[in-house]
Structures are given as C-alpha cells and as structure tokens.
Amino acid sequence: MSLADFFSPISLSDVLSGKEYYNSQFGKIIQKYESSFPDLESEEERPQLAILGVEEDRSAIDNKGTAKAPDAVRKHLYSLYQGDYNMKIVDLGNIKAGLAINDTYTALKLVVEELIKLGILPIIIGGGQDLTYAQYRGYEELEQRVEVAVVDAKFDLDQEHAENTPLNSQTYLNHIILHQPDYLFNLNNVAYQTYLVSKESINMYDKLYFNAQRVGMISGKLDQAEPIIRAADLVSFDIGAIRASEAPGNANAVPNGLFGDEACQLARYAGMSDKCSSVGFYEFNPTFDPMEQTAMLVSQMIWCFIDGYYNRKNDAPLIPKSAYIIYRTTLENEEHELVFVKSKKSDRWWMQVPYFGSKSVNERFYLVPCRYEDYQIAVSGEMPDLWWRTHQKLQ
Question: For the whole model, what pTM was predicted?
Fold first, then answer.
C-alpha cells in the first residue's frame, strides 16, 4: 500500500481563495499534493519535513470541530516567509476520517512510521489530542525506546479506570503508558496547571519517575523547559495549554496558561532538538476562532518549529570529543562521580547517567539533556533530581 492511499489532495481554491504568493513565502516554496502525490522515495527529491493534516475529531471531548483545523492553519501558514535557509518541505494533504476511528488511528500510525523510516519529520495538524497515541504507535516497529513530551494544561489520564478506559483526548496517556509492547522510556508534561490536575495523577507521575513542569515554574524562564523538550523523540502540543485570550480557538480554553510567544518558543525548542522526529499540534477548533487568531498562532508555532529545525546544531554529544567540554564533580559522600557534557557549539548541557548495576570497565551510560543549574547543584554536593529519576528508569 502506498502512502498516497491515505491522503486526499489539498484543494487550494478552498484553502487559499485564489491568493498569490511571493517567491519567499511558504505558499510558493512548499511542495503541495494537489494532483500528483509527491515522490518521497528519491533521495535527491526527498523532503526533510512533511506537513499532514488529520480530519478526525470523534474523540476530541467537548471539542468537535477540530477536524477543520488543517486547512484553517494552512491558510495562514502559507502566507509566512521563510527564514535564512533553504527548505525542503512537502504538504501531503489530509488524512480523511476513517469509517471507524480506529481506521484513522491506523492510517496515522502507518504514515508516521513510514515517514520516520525515510528520514522525513512529520508535522501533524489535528484533530483531537487522542491522535498523539497514533503518533506514538508510529514508533512501534522502529525498535527504540521513546521519550514523549506533552505541552498541556492537564494530564490526560483516567486514574480510576486505568486499564479499561476508552481512548479519547482526555485518556490517551493511559493508552501510551499501558501500551504493549512497552517502548516508552519517559513521559514529560510541560505547562500543566495544578488546579486542573488531581494529586493522584501527580503522585503517579512521581512513582513512575516521569517529569512534569507547572506553567508557573517556567513562566518568565522558559529555558527551564528546554532540556525536557530536547530529550523527546515525540512532541505533542495541546492548544488548550495556551491561555484563552491568546488562543480562543478551543472549546476547552481556560483563562490561564502559556502566552503565544511562549508557545512559539517551546515549538522552536522542539525544532532545534536533534532528537525530535515527529511533532503534533492538536485541539485547535476553528469553530471558536472567528477572528482566526488561533489559526495564525498555530501557523506561527509551526513556523518556529521549522525555523528551529533549520537551525539545529547537530551537537548531541557523540564524536568528536573536541566539540565538547567534560565536567566532573563528586558528591559529598563520594559514592558517585557525576559527569556533565557541554557543547561548544550551543552551550547546551547533558548529564551522563550510568545504567543500573553497570560496573564494567567500559561503563554504559545514558546522556540526558539537563540545565546548567543541574551542574551547579552537583557542584554544591547534592544529587540532581533529574539524575536520580533517569537512573531509576535505567534499571
């Protein structure tokens, strides 16, 4: 089966209303599936990024209408100007809602899987955030452990019926956590609001050594979220994490949350991450966006992701060692030597965490993105919480 079988072409007359674009605008540069499906197999012609819409909202709880999001975002995305780089981006069109919702999930799963295998990063415009589960399943056959970062005001969990809950936009994390085979290494939630999250859910995150950052924790210091975003293979944005005054296009919008520029910065962090291989923008509902403010914001978030992608430093600490500075520090009890790695290119930090029980001469370790503050904590003689959480997951 060809990927083309999953997509319907873009109707430019509906999306663009006959608008003409300048040569440096996305609408002129992005290759679009209008009549013939783009060639993704040729290495010479192969794009680096692929935009795809998903016209599915049956499990978007109290937010029906998100299926209209892809074309509403395209209208504004195509008007934006590219940065100072050469882009190779394709717009594959929309995945139509299947006869049953599981058909849509399967289609998105197979598309994400195939694009990642081809080295193409999918940019998904949904749809409800339950599509994150299908996005996650796209990694199932790739034989790798996966880190997930979710930007959301809530934890989309059902604590009371964890193993038997239906899949929807408010329970999809249950399905990711309990999915078999288990290839989830870590789950990170960014910008949650405490009064929207049960204490049982927070306790569960702690028990599983997942990471969660309150919106108040990163307000005014967004760089605190950068290492969490940088660690993720898969990033999922719930537009409901943005305050209603900035993004009214969501039936579940709330008064507090991220500002628009903060959402754009988080998207740029995701784009700059060498590790991120798919991203989704969910829960935008054009029905509640008469002034198209949210559509413009989502298009700018995607622009920031693309800008970040084309400004990647490719400095994940591998080789050559000359590109990094190694810092070593010993804790007060001298039982552990902590090793930190700093990139000379970007000044970003990583921390070496050894695999549990590894005492071989060639010690195996996991490199976890961290902050300079984590190094300062270690220098003061204390164990950074991030080191301990990661170490427990490596058992």
Answer: 0.95
